[in-house]
Amino acid sequence: MTFLQQPRAYEKTALADLQGAWMTLREAVVSQFGFPNSDTLLFHIDEAMSWESVRNLNTMKSSLVLIRNIAAQAQAPTEVTEGIDDVQDCFEEAVSAIADGSVT
Q1: 8 lies in a domain?
Q2: pTM
Q3: Which tens digits make up the pLDDT trace of 12-61?
Q4: How many structural domains does the chain have?
């Protein structure tokens, strides 16, 4: 019987960058926690980072719009809004990479 071995090298993809951007955004909200709706933002960020959202980027896109709106209404700190902008950029890169076939 043969066993599958763990790959020794991993290819960094646009999806990995997107996941990293979400993690950085989450850390920004945690570090600035206490502004209005920061708990709501954390909930929606965790939902957007879920496997279901990663498998269906349309779900993630909807979550990103919602998160941006909540942050704007709460007048979230600059660190948080910049994190949302980074997620948006990485999201667009991931969608483009999937469209051109470089990420499956």
Answers
A1: no
A2: 0.86
A3: 688 889 999 999 999 999 999 999 999 999 999 999 988 888 778 899 99
A4: 1
Instruction: Tell me, yes or no, whether 7 lies in a domain.
Output: no
Which structural domain range is residue 47 located in?
Answer: 14-99
pLDDT, averaged across the chain:
90
Q: Is residue 9 part of a domain?
A: no
Q: Of 1-10, 30-39, 92-101, where does the model show the most confidence?
A: 30-39
HEC readout, the chain: CCCCCCCCCCCCCHHHHHHHHHHHHHHHHHHCECECCHHHHHHHHHHHCCHHHHHCHHHHHHHHHHHHHHHHHCCCCHHHHHHHHHHHHHHHHHHHHHHCCCCC
Identify whether 85 is part of a domain: yes
